C-alpha cells in the first residue's frame, strides 16, 4: 500500500533493457505455509544498450529474500541493495549466472497476482507484473528467456503439477512429496510464466495439426466439474483448426493445457501452453450454462488459444503496446465467432459493447489512445479502448487492404517478428510492406484518443440526377489532447431506391451506371469530403457506415420514415438492426421528461412486423426486438437524468408489450423447444425470441405470461430457458412468485458457484429485486465471498453497471454504497477495486443533481488512507478533469 503519488511511466522514456536473460531455471518448493523459489538466471549485458555501466536491477514485490549468489558465490549483504521493490547489484561482469532464493506466502495473497491459492490449489497470474511477486526478475515483456521449471509438492494434496512447455522429468521425493520438471523451448517474457499445483482431474483429447503432429489436449478442473469440459474442448479444437485455415498458424508444443480456477481477477490468461481460466469462462453444461455463456466460452477459449501466435510467439515490447496483442487477438476471435455462428449477430453484439461502453470510456476522464503515452498502474489499462477499439482498428486495416492483402500482411508480421517483442508500429509496417498501401495517416488511430464524429448531409439534384453526400469529420478533445488531426476512415455505404432496390454507385458521370457496385467503401482522410453519385433518377435513402465499418459516431438527420424503410429493406443486416435502434432511441428520447405520453404508432407497427416476419433471419429478429439499453441511452444523452430515461424506456416497453400482447404470446408458442437442446444459431435465436416475449409479457403483469414463466421455470431442460423464466419473474410485480422462484432456484443450484453467480446477477440487475437494501442483504448471504472476484462482480459490479435506476438513486445512496465497497476492497484486491469504481468516474456527464453526489463519493475514496496506486490513478484522474 502506498500513500504517496505513484510514479507516471512514459512511452517516450522507453529504453532497451541493460541486461538480457537467456535462460531461467526455477525450482518451486510448495508447502502449506508458503513457498520457496530458487531461481537461477543466465544473464548478459545487452549489446544494444548504451548504458554500459548500468547496475543489474531486478523487480520484486512482497518477497522475502533468503539468498543471492553470483556465479555460485554467495553475495555479501553489502554487495547488493534490496529496496523492497528492487534488487540492485552494482558490480556485475558482462555475463554471469545469478541465483536468488525467495520465500513467498501464496495462502496470504489476496491480490491474486503472482502465485496464490484458490480453493486449495496453487496457481499464478503474472500479466502484467505478477512475476515480480514470485522472484526478483527484470519483469518487462522485452526480456525473453527460455524457462525450465521444477515443481515439488506434497503428492496427496497436489497430485497434479503443471507449468509451461513440455513435461520432461518426474519422480518421487522423501516425505510423501514428488516433483515434475517442465521445459519450454520457446523464449517468452515473464508475464507468460504459469504454474498450477493441486488436486485436479483432467479431460483428455487429441488434435492432429495440419502438418500431421498429434497434440495432447488437456483441461484440468476440480473433480466436481469433470462433466463440464466438453464444450471448452470442442471450442479449442475448432479454434486450432480455424487458426490453421484462416491464418496459417500451427500449434507448436506437444501439449496444450487449460486449467479452471475459481478465484481469478480476469477472464482467462494465455500463458504459453498452460492457459489459466476463470471457471466461469470454461465450465459449461446444458443444465448450468446459458447460451450466452456457451458462446462466451467458445470466444474466450479461441481468444486465449490465438494468443499463442499473436501475443506469445510475437509479443509486446512494452505495456504501451498492449493492443498489439489484444486488439489483434480480439479481431481474430471475433472473426472466428462470426465464422462459426451468425456474422450479423456477432457484429451487432460487438458494436453494442463498443458504442455503449467504449464510447463512454473515450468520452470520459480515463480516455486514452489505443497506444497510450503514459500510465501509473498498467492494470488500469486493460480497457475497452485497448481491446475493443484496438480490434476495430485492425478490422479497418482489413477493410482497407481486403482479405488477401491482409493475410499477406499478417503472414509477413508473424514471419518477420517471430520470437521478438515488438510495437504496434511494427504491425502496421508489415501490413504496409505486404500491401504497398501507405498507412501513415491511419496510424493516428493508435495515437489520438476520442471517438471521431462524422456529420453527414446530403442533397439531390433531380435535374442532373446527382446525389451529393458531404461528410465532415472531427475528433473531440480528450484529457491532454486537443486540436486533433483528421483520421483515415473507411466508410462503407449503399443507396436504396423507393422499392428498396440497391442503386448503382457511380462516382463519375461517364461511368457505366449499370455495372457500378451497389456498395462502396469511401476513404475519408480530410476534415470534409463531398461525394457525387451520378445517374440517379430518384432521391435515394442512404445506408451509411454499413457493417459499422469504423468506430465513429454518425450524425445524420434521419426521418422516422427513412428508419422504418431501412429496418425492412436494407440489404445489410447490421444496418437494419441499427435503423431499428435509432428509431427506438428517437422515440424514447422524445418522451424523456415529457408530461404527455404517446408512443409513435409507427414504432408499434414496426415491431409488429418484426414479430410476425418468419422469413427474416430469426437471430436478427431476436436482436432487433431488444430495445436500446439504459446505458446506451445515457451514453447518447447530454447531461442525462437517469430516472427520467428509465421511466421513458419502461413506458415504451410497456406500451409495446400491451399493444403486441397477442403477437408476443404467438411468438412464445411458435418458438417453444423442439427436439434436443443444441447450441446452434437457429436454436439460440428461438430461445432468445421466446424469452424476450416472456419478459415483455411479465413486464405488463400479464397473468398468462406469469403462468407460462412459472411453468417454464420448473420444466426447462436447459439454463437459458430456466434463467429466462427466472429473470422475467424477478423483473415483474408478482412479488410472491418472484421470491418463490428465487428460493427454489437457489435450493436447486446452491452447490454450483457459477450458477450462484448468475443467481446473484439476476437480482442485482433488477430494479424490482435489486434496490439497495436487497443488495446489502446479498452481501451478507452465505454464498457471498469477499475474496472471490466473480461474486463481487455479480453483486456490486452488476448493481452499479446494470441496475442504473437503483444505482443512480437521487438520494446518492447508491454512490456511497459503491464508494464503501471500493474502499473495503482496495486493501485486499486493488485491481478489482479500481475496476469497480468506473461508474463513479463518469460523474461529469450526468445532470448536476447526480454529478455533485458522484463527485463527493469519489472524494471520499480519494481521502482514504493508504490508497493503492491502482485506485489513486483512476480517482485522481477522474477528479482532475
Ligand atoms: Zn487477450
Please write out the topology:
Blueprint: E1 9-10, E2 19-31, E3 34-45, E4 56-59, E5 64-70, E6 73-74, E7 80-82, E8 86-89, E9 95-104, E10 114-118, E11 121-125, E12 145-154, E13 160-163, E14 166-172, E15 177-188, E16 195-198, E17 201-208, E18 214-221, H1 230-247, E19 255-261, E20 268-269, E21 274-278, H2 291-306, E22 315-316, H3 322-340, H4 343-362, E23 374-375, H5 384-401, H6 403-417, E24 421-422, H7 424-435, H8 444-447, E25 453-461, E26 466-474, E27 489-496, E28 520-524, E29 528-533, E30 541-543, E31 553-555, H9 560-569, H10 573-591, H11 601-612, H12 618-624, H13 630-636, H14 642-659, H15 661-670, H16 681-699, H17 703-715, H18 719-730, H19 735-749, H20 753-764, H21 772-779, H22 789-802, H23 804-807, H24 813-826, H25 830-836, H26 838-841, H27 848-862, H28 869-880
Parallel strand pairs: 2-12, 18-19, 19-21, 22-24, 25-31
Antiparallel strand pairs: 1-23, 2-3, 3-9, 4-8, 5-6, 5-9, 7-8, 10-11, 11-16, 12-15, 13-16, 14-15, 17-18, 20-21, 25-26, 26-29, 27-28, 27-30
The structure holds zinc ion (ZN).
Amino acid at each position: 500500500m502506498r500513500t504517496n503519488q505513484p510514479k507516471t511511466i512514459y512511452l517516450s522514456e522507453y529504453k532497451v533493457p541493460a541486461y538480457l536473460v537467456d535462460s531461467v531455471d526455477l525450482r518451486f518448493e510448495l508447502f502449506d505455509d508458503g513457498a520457496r523459489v530458487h531461481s537461477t538466471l543466465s544473464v548478459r549485458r545487452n549489446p544494444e544498450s548504451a548504458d554500459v555501466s548500468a547496475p543489474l536491477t531486478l523487480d520484486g514485490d512482497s518477497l522475502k529474500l533468503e539468498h543471492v549468489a553470483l556465479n555460485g558465490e554467495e553475495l555479501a549483504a553489502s554487495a547488493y541493495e534490496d529496496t523492497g521493490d528492487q534488487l540492485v547489484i552494482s558490480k556485475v561482469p558482462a555475463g554471469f549466472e545469478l541465483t536468488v532464493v525467495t520465500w513467498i506466502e501464496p495462502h496470504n495473497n489476496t491480490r491474486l497476482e503472482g502465485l496464490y491459492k484458490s480453493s486449495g490449489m496453487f496457481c499464478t497470474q503474472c500479466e502484467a507484473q505478477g512475476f515480480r511477486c514470485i522472484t526478483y526478475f527484470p519483469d518487462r515483456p522485452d526480456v525473453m528467456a527460455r524457462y525450465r521449471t521444477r515443481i515439488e509438492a506434497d503428492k496427496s494434496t497436489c497430485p497434479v503439477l503443471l507449468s509451461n512447455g513440455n513435461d520432461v522429468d518426474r519422480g518421487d521425493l522423501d516425505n510423501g512429496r514428488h516433483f515434475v520438471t517442465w521445459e519450454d523451448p520457446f523464449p517468452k517474457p515473464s508475464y507468460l510464466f504459469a504454474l498450477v499445483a493441486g488436486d485436479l482431474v483432467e479431460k483428455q483429447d487429441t488434435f492432429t495439426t495440419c502438418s500431421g503432429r498429434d497434440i495432447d489436449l488437456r483441461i484440468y478442473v476440480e473433480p466436481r466439474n469433470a462433466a463440464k469440459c466438453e464444450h471448452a474442448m470442442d471450442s479449442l479444437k475448432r479454434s486450432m483448426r480455424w487458426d490453421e485455415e484462416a491464418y496459417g498458424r500451427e500449434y507448436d508444443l506437444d501439449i496444450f493445457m487449460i486449467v479452471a480456477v475459481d478465484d481469478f481477477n480476469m477472464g482467462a490468461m494465455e500463458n504459453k501452453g498452460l492457459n489459466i481460466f476463470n471457471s466461469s469462462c470454461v465450465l459449461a453444461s446444458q443444465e448450468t450454462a446459458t447460451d450466452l455463456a456457451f458462446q462466451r466460452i467458445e470466444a474466450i477459449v479461441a481468444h486465449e488459444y490465438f494468443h499463442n501466435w499473436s501475443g506469445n510467439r510475437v509479443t509486446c515490447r512494452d505495456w504501451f503496446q498492449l493492443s498489439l496483442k489484444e486488439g489483434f487477438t480480439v479481431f481474430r476471435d471475433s472473426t472466428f465467432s462470426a465464422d462459426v455462428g451468425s456474422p450479423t449477430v456477432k457484429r451487432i453484439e460487438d458494436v453494442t459493447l463498443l458504442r455503449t461502453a467504449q464510447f463512454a470510456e473515450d468520452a470520459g476522464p480515463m480516455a486514452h489512445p489505443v497506444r497510450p503515452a503514459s500510465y501509473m498502474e498498467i492494470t488500469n489499462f486493460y480497457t475497452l479502448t485497448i481491446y475493443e477499439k484496438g480490434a476495430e482498428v485492425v478490422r479497418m486495416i482489413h477493410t482497407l487492404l481486403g482479405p488477401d492483402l491482409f493475410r499477406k500482411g499478417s503472414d509477413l508480421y508473424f514471419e518477420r517478428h517471430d520470437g521478438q517483442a515488438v510495437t504496434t508500429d511494427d504491425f502496421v509496417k508489415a501490413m504496409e510492406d505486404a500491401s504497398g498501401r501507405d498507412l501513415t495517416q491511419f496510424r493516428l488511430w493508435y495515437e489520438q484518443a476520442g471517438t471521431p464524429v462524422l456529420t453527414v448531409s446530403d442533397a439531390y439534384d433531380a435535374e442532373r440526377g446527382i446525389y451529393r453526400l458531404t461528410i465532415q469529420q472531427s475528433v473531440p478533445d480528450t484529457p491532454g489532447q486537443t486540436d486533433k488531426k483528421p483520421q483515415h476512415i473507411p466508410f462503407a455505404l449503399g443507396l436504396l431506391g423507393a422499392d428498396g432496390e440497391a442503386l448503382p454507385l457511380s462516382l463519375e458521370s461517364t461511368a457505366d451506371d449499370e455495372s457500378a457496385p451497389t456498395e462502396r467503401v469511401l476513404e475519408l482522410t480530410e476534415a470534409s469530403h463531398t461525394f457525387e453519385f451520378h445517374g440517379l433518377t430518384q432521391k435515394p435513402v442512404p445506408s451509411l457506415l454499413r457493417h459499422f465499418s469504423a468506430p465513429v459516431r454518425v450524425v445524420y438527420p434521419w426521418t422516422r420514415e427513412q428508419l422504418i424503410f431501412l429496418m425492412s429493406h436494407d440489404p445489410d443486416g447490421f444496418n437494419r438492426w441499427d435503423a431499428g435502434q435509432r428509431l427506438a432511441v428517437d422515440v424514447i428520447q422524445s418522451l424523456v421528461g415529457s408530461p404527455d405520453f404517446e408512443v409513435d404508432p409507427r414504432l408499434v407497427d414496426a415491431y409488429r412486423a418484426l414479430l410476425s416476419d418468419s422469413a427474416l433471419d430469426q437471430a436478427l429478429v431476436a436482436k432487433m426486438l431488444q430495445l436500446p439499453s439504459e446505458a446506451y441511452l445515457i451514453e447518447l444523452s447530454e447531461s442525462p437524468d437517469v430516472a427520467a430515461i428509465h421511466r421513458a424506456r419502461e413506458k415504451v416497453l410497456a406500451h409495446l408489450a400491451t399493444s403486441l400482447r397477442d403477437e408476443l404470446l404467438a411468438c412464445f408458442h411458435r418458438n417453444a423447444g423442439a427436439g434436443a437442446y443444441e447450441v446452434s444459431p437457429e436454436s439460440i435465436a428461438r430461445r432468445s425470441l421466446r424469452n424476450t416475449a416472456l419478459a415483455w409479457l411479465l413486464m405488463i403483469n400479464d397473468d398468462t405470461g406469469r403462468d407460462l414463466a412459472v411453468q417454464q421455470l420448473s420444466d426447462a431442460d436447459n439454463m437459458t430457458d430456466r434463467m429466462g423464466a427466472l429473470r422475467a419473474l424477478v423483473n415483474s410485480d408478482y412479488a410472491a412468485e418472484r421470491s418463490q422462484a428465487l428460493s427454489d432456484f437457489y435450493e436447486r443450484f446452491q452447490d454450483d458457484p457459477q450458477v450462484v453467480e448468475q443467481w446473484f446477477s439476476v437480482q442485482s440487475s433488477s430494479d424490482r429485486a435489486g434496490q439497495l437494501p436487497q443488495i446489502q442483504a446479498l452481501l451478507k448471504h452465505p454464498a457471498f465471498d469477499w475474496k472471490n472476484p466473480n461474486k463481487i462482480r455479480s453483486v456490486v459490479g452488476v448493481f452499479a453497471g446494470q441496475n442504473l435506476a437503483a444505482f443512480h438513486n437521487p438520494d446518492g445512496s447508491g454512490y456511497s454504497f459503491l464508494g464503501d465497497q471500493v474502499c473495503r476492497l482496495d486493501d485486499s484486491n486493488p485491481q478489482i477495486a479500481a475496476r469497480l469504481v468506473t461508474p463513479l468516474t463518469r460523474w461529469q456527464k450526468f445532470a448536476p443533481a447526480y454529478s455533485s453526489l458522484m463527485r463527493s463519493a469519489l472524494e471520499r475514496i480519494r481521502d482514504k488512507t493508504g490508497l493503492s496506486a491502482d485506485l489513486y490513478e483512476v480517482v485522481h484522474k477522474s477528479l482532475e478533469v
